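Researcher: Last one for today. Full complex below.
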Amino acid sequence: MSEHSSVAAAEHPAVLQHQFDDLEQQMDASTLGMWVFLLTEIMFFGGLFAAYTVYRAAFPEAFAAGSLHLDLKLGGFNTVVLIASSLTMALAVRAAQLGQRKNLVAFLAATLGLGLVFLVVKVFEYHHKYVERLIPGPNFVFEGPHAAQVQMMFCFYFAMTGMHALHMVVGVGLLVYFIAKARAGRYTAQYYWPVEVMGLYWHFVDIVWIFLFPLLYLIGHRGAH
Amino acid sequence: MSTVWTAPPAKTETNYLNESYGIKSWLLTKDHKRIALLYLAAITFFFAIGGFFAVLIRLELITPAGDLMQPETYNKAFTMHGVMMIFFFLIPAVPAVLGNFLVPLMIGARDLAFPRINLLSWYIYMIGGLFALYAMVAGGVDTGWTFYTPYSSTYSNTQVMATAIGIFILGFSSILTGLNFIVTIHKMRAPGLTWFRLPLFIWAHYATSVIQILGTPVVAIAIVLVGLERAFHIGIFDPKLGGDPILFQHLFWFYSHPAVYIMILPSMGVISELVTCFSRKKIFGYGFVAMSSVAIAVLGFLVWGHHMFVSGQSVYAGMVFSILSYLVAIPSAIKVFNWTATLYRGSISYQTPLLYALGFIGLFTIGGLTGLFLANLGVDVHLHDTYFVVAHFHYIMVGGAIMGYLGGIHFWWPKISGRMYPEGWARFSALVLFVGFNLTFFPQFVLGYLGMPRRYHAYPEEFQVLNVLSSAGASILAVGYLIPMIYLIWSMRYGKPAPANPWGATGLEWQTPSPPPSYNFEETPVVTEEPYVYSHEEAEVV
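Model: Here's the assembly. Have a good evening.
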């Protein structure tokens, strides 16, 4: 083991951290670290989903009524954008594994672009809600039954999509960092896995949206309409 | 603190303490051993603040009338006591100090898997602490450490936001510590160190880490929702607007009951090490002790509703929670029985760490058994929110968690500081602590059973004798905490230099010099046998 490690360390003196014996151990640790972090994230969003579920079950009409005020087209468009960004992210990981620096930068940049499109659309959606006075708080106005409960639905809408958007912003920041490093040639076919570990995070944030979209946008559009 | 540590050492070899000097070398360190000491200084500071509020509480309760403080001030005093002690001391105490120091050493690694994240966790802790300190000087907070809604979200006019932000931030330091431990224990064990050769300290910290990463984010989101409700006046937990205050209690206790096990499990790991070392005997039932840690972590997530028997939750849910709570007694009892079986016919030497361990076993048993009273639906209606509850959880948290913490600090002090502590003073203070603790908290069982509610600054006159006993005990307890603080600091400069293995203990951490070099081991150790092979060794305790 020690012989093997000294060989690996000699090949990659710059990237092997001192606490690890070899790059394989470093890769295993980083990957497991990200999975454990994502477990934490699942519990974090899980608390929100649990609270949402409780109130959705208690006030189904109000949640459906609130859902009708969400922009299904923009939400659907954003869903497609995020799924596409997962594809480009997966292609970026493959480019990294093959040591194709140009492709890696291109796919990371595409992912970044799609992430930014998502965030811009989200800003427009939030702005619409502001204009329609659907932001929870003293200025909230909703004409119709169950106004207080509809306000609560919008509270969950903003808490859940806001928390998701915050994760997107972090992901965009990570992408900028990775693009800069990839352009500088930091990642090679042997040292590709930081891209993969970051990709895990990006896919996770996408998957959260896959759950948010139907729970928030689609529940009002069942049958009756 | 750090300037004291940089005093010139007696030894000439370089170790992690004298390798570099100056404030910067400490504040930017990525060495898990130095980060452990940063945590030690920080949690000692917050422990002192929490202790200060405890003094205020016990002073107020000497007399039945509310003569020292206004009721509002008293509410703030017990809230700040709870917040400081639970979030800023008990939860990080053993994992962040002893765990940080020992996990890599015990598994033969050069550091934790993510040293930078380890340092980051300390800074996150300090930022959370600054928010809590700001809340304290800006007027305090009066909701109780549980932040129950709708009082915390709608009505309280105190510094709920700043405190909540502080605890929210703090949570991430706990998550990152747990994440680091899990990855390190999985991926960085020395060759030959299989899972069932791991020290029980490691098993306990693994179980603790699982709770930290799965529980903490849930309380974080609960705090976010309370913050949103306060900031925007929306009604997630406000019944007037259709919200449900009980939902907050569910989210809060989903973390905060397992958090009790974050406090006690690492101390249990310490006790396992101490008992086997000072009875010079292999631990009895290694596999059972290891698995009971995991069982406690898993069961801990299924019992939160026992805090809510009188909150209006469904009686049927209450019955299930009651039965599940009883189940926690099984792994807890497995530990206690195995420790006593280890002591049985052991070659026992009554060094200070063992005194703390014996104290732990006795006090934890009382705390655990009284927990069964409270897990009973019918009895809990009588005892809920009385001093019986206060006494019960102090037996677990102070009698259990802090005894284990202090026992561990003494046991590994020679390794941490390279110096021996004065044994006579240490034994004396361990006894003072034991006496002071029981005098403080045993009368509270009686008070609670007689019906004295918690969280009031005044009480009927018939309770005065027991309250005076409790306050008198608290003053003895305070002396018991002060003596170790003094002699441990003293020993850093004047203590006898410690050999590599002063207790003749097994475990990889004793195979490296005291204090260890920055890289921990000259060569990565290879493990060829099970832990705690004490029977072949002669007792060579200094």
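Chain B is about 65% helix and 0% strand. Confidence is low (pLDDT under 50) at residues 1-11 of chain B.
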